[in-house]
Amino acid sequence: MQLMGAAMEWNEQRLGRQLKLRDLHVLLTVAKYGSMGKAAIQLSVSQPAISKVISDMERALGVRLLDRKPQGVEPTIYARALLDRSALAFDELKQAIEQIRFLANPTTGELRIGSTIAIATGFMPAVIDRLSRQYPKMVFHLSAGEAAMTYRTLEERTVDLVVAPIFAEIDEQHLHAEILYDEPLVVVAGGQSPWARRRKIGLADLEQATWTLPPLDSLYGSVVAEAFRASGLDIPRATVFTSVTAARNALLATGRFVSIVQGSVMKFNLNHPAFKVLPIDLPTTRRPIGVITLKARTLSPVAQLFIDCAHEVAKALAR
After folding, report:
1. How far is residue 115's CA from residue 163's CA, in Å, rounded to a whole number?
2. Which long-range contacts (CB under 8 A, 24 or more apart) does 175-179 make?
3. Which of 92, 200, 224, 291 has the smallest set of CB atoms within 10 Å of its CB?
4. pLDDT tens, position by position, for the chain (319 residues)?
C-alpha cells in the first residue's frame, strides 16, 4: 500500500510538471471551435503547435482526448471529464483575479448578471444605476431571457449570479438563494384605453377585452392561467401571445390591449403615460424574487456589493 501511494504521488507530481494551465486552455479552445485550425487562429499560434499540445497531453494522460472527423475534431469521454473540471478551475481562477483587482482598487470590477426579461426591464436598471453611481468604473454585463434559460447560464458559469423569480423549491445543497421581495402580477392597460378610466373594475369585466399575454406554456404563463382559474374564469382567448416584454408594451401603448405583467415593471414606470395599472388584485400570482448563486463558487466582492445594493432597492420598492 505504501508503494502504491508513493507511486500515485510520483505520478501526480510528474503530471503536474507535464500538464500546464495553458494546455487546458488549448483543449478548451479546440473543443469550443471543433477544429485545431480555428483554435490556432483564436490563440494566435500555429496549428502544429496546437497538435503538439494535444499529443503531449494524450501521452501524459495515457488516453485519447480528441476523435478526428472529416468536419473537425470532437472531445472524447476522457476529454469531456477533463473539460468539466477545467471549466471549474478556470472559473475559480477568474474569480480570484477579480478579487485581486478589487482589493487593489475597490472602485473597479466586472460583474456578469443573468435575469428574466421583465426584471431586467425595471428592477435591474435601478440596482445597476445606484451601484454605478457609487462605483462609476464598475462594468456590468446584463443578459436576460426566460427563467429556465437564466438558471442554466448560472449552472454553466457564464454569469456570476442570477436575479429571477423562484417558481420551485431551491436545491439548497447546490444553490443559495436570498429573497429580495415578493412580487405579484398586475393587470395593465394602455393610458388611452377606456379601461384605464374605470375606477372600479374586476377581472371578469375584461373577458371580452383584447389581450396580449405571455405564452401559457411558459412559467409566467402558467401563473396567469392560475389567476383566471382562481377567479372562476376561463383563460381569455388572447390575440397575441408573446414572451417579448417590449412587444407587449408596444401593443399596450396603442390603447387597444390589456395585459398581465410583473408588478415591478410598472412600479418603475408609474409615470409613463402609455401604461395604467388597473385596480384588480391578483393574490395567487405573488412569487418571490431572489438572488441565486452557486454554493460551490467563490463570490467576488463586486457580486456581494451588488447583492447588498439589490436588497436596498428592494426595500425601497416594498415601501
Report:
1. 5
2. 175/292, 175/293, 175/294, 175/295, 176/292, 176/293, 176/294, 176/295, 177/290, 177/291, 177/292, 178/290, 178/291, 178/307, 178/311, 179/288, 179/289, 179/290
3. 200
4. 443 343 334 355 555 556 777 888 888 888 889 898 898 998 889 998 999 988 888 888 888 899 888 888 898 998 888 887 777 777 777 777 777 777 767 677 889 999 998 899 889 999 999 999 999 988 999 999 887 788 888 888 889 999 998 887 777 678 899 999 998 899 999 888 888 888 899 999 998 889 999 888 888 888 999 999 999 998 888 789 988 888 888 898 888 999 998 888 888 765 677 888 999 999 999 999 999 999 878 788 889 999 999 999 999 887 7
Residues 189 and 169 in one domain: no
| Residue 82, in any domain of the structure | yes
* Tally of domains in the chain: 3
Q: Which domain holds residue 41?
A: 2-86
